[in-house]
Structures are given as structure tokens and as C-alpha cells.
Amino acid sequence: MTAGGQRSLHEAAVAQFHHAADLIDLEPRYREILSYPKNEIIVNFPVTLDDGTLKVFTGYRIQHNNILGPFKGGLRFHPDVDLDEVRALAAWMTFKTALVALPFGGAKGGLTIDPADYSEGEMRRVVRRFTHALGSNIGPDHDIPAPDMGTSSQTMDWLMDTYANMSSPGFRQSVKGVVTGKSVAVGGSVGREEATGRGVLYSLRHWCGEKDVRLDELSIAVQGFGNVGSHFAVLAAEAGCVIRGVADHTGTVVNEEGIDVEKLRVWVAEHGGVADFAGADAVDTEELFALDVDVLVPAALENQLTVERAKTFSGRLVIEAANGPTTPDAVDYLLNQGVEIVPDILANAGGVIVSYFEWLQNKSARAWSFDDVDKRLRELVWQAHDKVVHCVRERDCSRRDAAYIVALDRLVDVYNRRGIFP
Ligand code: NAD
User: Fold this and answer.
1) Are residues 214 and 167 in the same domain?
2) Which of 122, 90, 94 minimizes the C-alpha distance to 109?
3) Of 81, 143, 214, 357, which residue is the least packed, with the fewest Cβ within 10 Å?
4) pTM given for the model
5) Which of 96, 108, 176, 182 is catalytic?
6) What does the pLDDT read at residue 261?
């Protein structure tokens, strides 16, 4: 529990899976195993800063489960990162990879740092020392990090290069798959950069198909305009949706007629945030949630859609592009109001799906075309949605419960066949 008597993020994540586990009478031993991370790695490592002083950083890598394949999950660099948050994010990865039928387990890593406070040279040294400190706890067939908040393809390029230099010469070329989300020149996949946002759009398209709604009839508010939020917004606008509001850590901007999100992206690249963008009006953050829109896409941090904010939302759909963006009481409130929620482990799975494609390309030393990546991404996202919708109809449960049930079916099947060691 937190100091305020509320569930911590990890407790909330475990409660989500227990809720679904209750519906299928999950065997207690599997509930027990999946309630805990398998390994928790904490490293403290020193870095010399530009002014000659030395600072010790604390990094985390939580390996939740690997019954389906190597641990897989992003690295987050953010001032609020702590062990509890990384534990929750790692658990969500296990259910996400199981849900979308990838041969991966779940993990997450993080560093409590604000990258904006450090020079590029300092960040390069931080990433190299973090990779060195993790050492053999990561590896292309063991645990494979990827980008998340505050990290990018540049971070992954440095990580891969450091890991390769730590490997014996005969293996340096074959360890490229130690991370995904690298830049294409360094062994990344075309389509990885925008994959999570594209997966969110495919989730929205699937929902439109189900409800017989046209994409170009929809208006949207997006919270978070980083990797996930900006790519989603640009793709959704291209598909005809009207993006009425966008918020990030610098402010909130709205335009009833629709924000030119391509221009907003250029503005954010130059100015670091949406604040002061000329093509829209600046409003208070709370107004984003009260906008007259059909769809809300939280794509920033967890616990952003609180019950107070949910009470002001008048639309019909929330697509959780971020991990854990809706508080448990807001989830209950929205579902009671008939608002549908596409849960995070389904909505934002596009990133890990294309990470899997990158890993396959690295293993086979081949490069797929954008069309191949895109077609296979859409197939995997829609197959998972089909299973979830089928489960919702069969069990009359929420999409979140259904997503966990589909994931649990796969995990339990493999546990039953392999047995529990020894
Ligand atoms: P990012 O660092 O690229 O962008 C984060 C965005 O959130 C920025 O626009 C930032 O300004 C905004 N933000 C931060 N604090 C905010 C606040 N208090 N209020 C409003 N906006 C705020 O991160 P990202 O990679 O886009 O990740 C966003 C979410 O998506 C996270 O929950 C992450 O775990 C999840 N996710 C990311 C990926 C991926 O491939 N990058 C994959 C799956 C899930």
C-alpha cells in the first residue's frame, strides 16, 4: 500500500490479473507464480559528469516471467522511476507478450533520472555503465530490453554497442538482438519507431469494425505526445480522425476544428513540448479530459485518468496507449457508465510485436520490407483483438478481463505441459 492507503502500482497490476484469474478459477499455484517477479536486479553504478564530479545512479531490471521465451520489455528513464513501478510494468509485459502470442516473457528496466538534466555525453556514459552493470543479466536469448519513456533508438544503439564490446570477438556480430528498437542503420527494423502508435491505431480500427463506426467520424483527445502519442495522433489524423486536444508535460492545447498534428510534431521537436503552439489554444490540463470527443487516448504516464477526470469525460471509448493510465476506481466508474476501455496490454502491444520482428531479422541477418512488417503487425494485433472480443462475448466480462484470460490460457497451457521444475 502507498502512504495514502491506496494500492501501489504493482499491487494494482496484480489485482487486475487476480480479477481475471477468479473468473477462470485459475489453479492457485499459477496465481502464486505469476504474482511475483522471478528476478529483481538492482545495480548502483558511478558515472563521471562533465564537470568532473562523480554521481552514483541506481538502475533496475525486473524479470517477471520467462516460461514462454526470453524476458522482454522496455527501459524507462524518468525521475519518478522506482522499484514498484518497474515491477508493475514487468508483470504487464508477461501478459502482453502472452496475449499477442509472442515467444517472449516479461521484464522491464528503469533508471531514476531526468535525461533533460544531462548532456549527450553524460547520457552515453550512463547508458554504457548501466549496460556494463547489468552484464550477463541481459542477452539476445535471455533478456532483451527496448525503448520506453525517456529512452530512444539512440539509447538502444549505445546499449547494443556496449554489450557487443563486452562480448568475445567471435560473438560481436551475433549479439545485435540483445536489444530491439535500435536505429535501422544499426540493425533496427523499419517500422519499429512508430510501431506502438500504429498498433494503437489498429486497435481503434478493430473497434470501429466491431461497432460499425467510420474512423473519419471520430474526434480524439491525446495525452502524451512522445513516441507513442505523436505517432498515433499523426496516423489517426491521416486516417481522417479529428484530433481536438493534445497534452504533454509542458501544457495542453485544443482546437475544435482539429489540430494539425504534423505541424505540432515539428513544433515539439524544436521546442521540447506542445506549449505555445500557435495552431491551437492553450487550456488547463483538466480540460483535455472534458473535451467533446469520442475517444480518449492516454499515452503518457500511469494513473493519469483518475475518477475525477473520468467523471468529466463524455466520450464512448478509452484506448490505453500508455501502461496503466487508468486508476482502478476510474476503470470501475467508466465501465459503469458504459464507456469501453481497450486495455493497455492489448492497445500498446504493437511495440513489442515489431520488436519481435526486429529480433527475428537480427537472428536471420535479413531485413524485412515495411509492407511485411506492417502486414504482420496488423495481423497479430487483430488476431489478439478477435480472441479478446470472442472471450468478452463468451464470458460477458470486460475487455481487460478477457485480455488477461487469453494470456493466462496460453501461460497455463505451457506450464501444464512443461511442469514446474524440479
Ligand atoms: P515518451 O518519453 O516518448 O513520451 C512521453 C510523453 O508523455 C511526452 O510527450 C511527455 O511530455 C508526456 N508526459 C510526461 N508526463 C506527463 C504529464 N504529467 N502529463 C501529460 N503528459 C506527460 O514515452 P513513450 O515511449 O511515448 O511512452 C508513453 C507510454 O507508452 C508509457 O506508458 C510507455 O510505457 C508506453 N509504451 C511505450 C512503448 C514504446 O514503444 N515506446 C510501447 C508500449 C507502451
Assistant:
1) no
2) 90
3) 214
4) 0.97
5) 108
6) 98
